[in-house]
Input
Amino acid sequence: MRERILRELMALIRFPTISAQPGARLAVRDCAAWLVRHMRGLGLQAAAVTHDGPPIVLGEWRRHPDRPTALIYGHYDVQPPDPIEAWTSPPFAPAIRGEHLYGRGASDDKGQLFVHLKAVEQHLRAAGDLPVNVRFLLDPEEEIGSPSLLRFVSSERDRIRADVAVVSDTRILGPDRPAITYALRGSLSMEVEMAGPPRDLHSGNYGGAVRNPLEALCRRLATLHDRDGRIAVPGFYDAVRSVAASERRYLAASGVSEAEAPSASTAAQWGEPGFTPAERSTIRPAIVITGLHGGYQGPGPKSVLPAHASAKLNVRLVPDQDPAEIDRRIRMQLTADDGDPVQVRVTTHAAARPVLVDTRQPAVRAAATAYESAFGRAPVFVRSGGTIPVVDLLSRALRVPTVLMGFALPDDGLHGPDERLHLPTFFRGIETSVRFLSELAVHDRRLSLPRG
Amino acid sequence: MRERILRELMALIRFPTISAQPGARLAVRDCAAWLVRHMRGLGLQAAAVTHDGPPIVLGEWRRHPDRPTALIYGHYDVQPPDPIEAWTSPPFAPAIRGEHLYGRGASDDKGQLFVHLKAVEQHLRAAGDLPVNVRFLLDPEEEIGSPSLLRFVSSERDRIRADVAVVSDTRILGPDRPAITYALRGSLSMEVEMAGPPRDLHSGNYGGAVRNPLEALCRRLATLHDRDGRIAVPGFYDAVRSVAASERRYLAASGVSEAEAPSASTAAQWGEPGFTPAERSTIRPAIVITGLHGGYQGPGPKSVLPAHASAKLNVRLVPDQDPAEIDRRIRMQLTADDGDPVQVRVTTHAAARPVLVDTRQPAVRAAATAYESAFGRAPVFVRSGGTIPVVDLLSRALRVPTVLMGFALPDDGLHGPDERLHLPTFFRGIETSVRFLSELAVHDRRLSLPRG
Output
């Protein structure tokens, strides 16, 4: 049976569903059709829904009107495989070596969404029945910010109503260290452009007499942090919820720092005083300059006083920071008239709210029980520094609790070459999901939210 | 006669002698051979001297052992013609439209070096004789910093010994406003690289906990100037020679600011308090950030905490700043250990000393008389914010005074598309050079330096 499952998963990985590349459109359509066929084969109702963008794949099994419905979210698009020459085997020709299945999307997120499809299959083959109702929502564009899903969720909410949402796109700490992520940072992506002289000037003829937008940009960006590593934007920390000492002790003891947080060996630690490296990248917000561009980019020198300079920023937010409010405060600081004769333009590319899942809710307890039974060890609860915009989107649109049930490992190489899936963990994932669906039925009465 | 001269100059411009492009090597060799033939045709001894690099073209006429020798420097290489689509006629197919000859190098510097060749020709045709001895030194690499000339001058000084050096690679103020440049700023081209984490990291997982080299770079660069526009590097101004009030008044009255200095219409004025825009870009030094690079450069956002950041700097120096000393001070500021966990590396690409020509020396007086006779108006004396490294090189190697006898106009479009030569000014330049050589003989006794 395991061999058949792997053959199926390899077929799914073979579609080069690179959402960032328009040339992948056909592959995305073919992959959606494959998923629809596959779900129908399992006994689900399934459809690929296309509006303007690529198809959103829906599946459902709802034969128990008196029981809760779980909405399982996954994405079938993948990151570009570049640098392609760094792969040991081709990214879209999945290959098994040792305990791993190699291929783009093997872990992020085709392997993880397949975990739940195979769990549903196992229930249906064993009992001809599922313990709860299930809906699948498979996103064709997670890696580029889910624009089509965003429109879909707001216009066709009824097709995905549920009592609990399950998102499988996070990591556990190790093959024997299951984990449930209960917090995600929010994200705000901005761009700052500065314009100085109307055209590039000669640095000999004009240097010293004309405001240089590159220098103005550096000066403004340097004001975003103080010398100690705190963010120096007035009001930036106002809404930051402080984390109880007991929770900080729990997080420190759970060992997440070893697996995920930067260690002295990976990078120079630096950041807000009073917090550990792991805390700085999870329970505290950050402003990261992700790109600087301006003037001459080639080798050697050039005598130019450039007309334009720009920078990209990625802000990571924690509860209860509001992306719009933080956006406003950063804009204010970057565009403040300090007498500099430059034009400043700030663009916001994307914004996502931070997420905090209440770990006491029944669906999270069901997930914890399921992990423990499959992995032989209770999961720890961890906070991630990353962002999954769809989690906040689903929570707000459906007004249901979300459980982040991830099965990726820290060394799966997500977004990099030789991305891989750890097969023993994958099969334990299926066991976890099988048990989770049963547990949801047990916890039914405690799922306190209105039925969809 | 004018038509023949223009035909010859157009032949010279047709060689695409782009020193920055290795593919132009043959064109450079062919152009050198053309120049040698042309000079021999005029009655000069001529040779193209090649060591490792492209040929340096030498010419000489020295039949008066009792008279002084003028070394005339020009360069036959040109800037790349990009953007080529912005040219009205192809850059290497010279075309006359109205009063202008269009083509890459028409003004910078093939037209200007040709002025002197035609002046020598005129003397020799008219009298079979020259009033003084003449040597030509034609550089194949001025636009890329004259590396071959540098080696040549230090190893074969005797072949270019002279009593005065003439460099024709500067501008006058307008067709009826002759000018002699008597000061050039020096130049120092540096690059700063900052290294943070050993590889690009995810800004979600690591943001806030790892030192970002882009931010460290901005912070350091922002320390180079104070808020008012003064350079904030300790000791930077120590050696700056102050300019007498009388000279500042003279420069302000000479009108250079209209033609060359930045005006409100071209760019936002900004700089050192207490000086006019024209002064800031001529008698005062400057630090210009010419390039910024780091992290993600594409469209839209990317969640990256980059491993590397870099910036290019161009420092413009005035007498008596020493490039090595200023280089040391800037390095000290950029690499100072302020506790930031980043590696900083500073590279120096090129350095050239500032130049100040004594306007009272006989050769400059001879040039002034010559301009006045040809243009019907006495030249003004101006300072340039630019740098011609070879001027300092020749002055030091030969220990002779240098005269900057330029004939370019501010709107010749040097280094840009549709570069052009103003033909009436070109022919007045020939008249100027003819008279200059005669004046040098008149001033002979006052040329106080030892004969070469």
Chain A touches chain B through 80 residues (CB under 8 Å). Chain A has 13 helices and 18 strands. Residues 448-452 of chain A have pLDDT under 50 and may be disordered. The first strand of chain A starts at residue 45 and ends at 49.
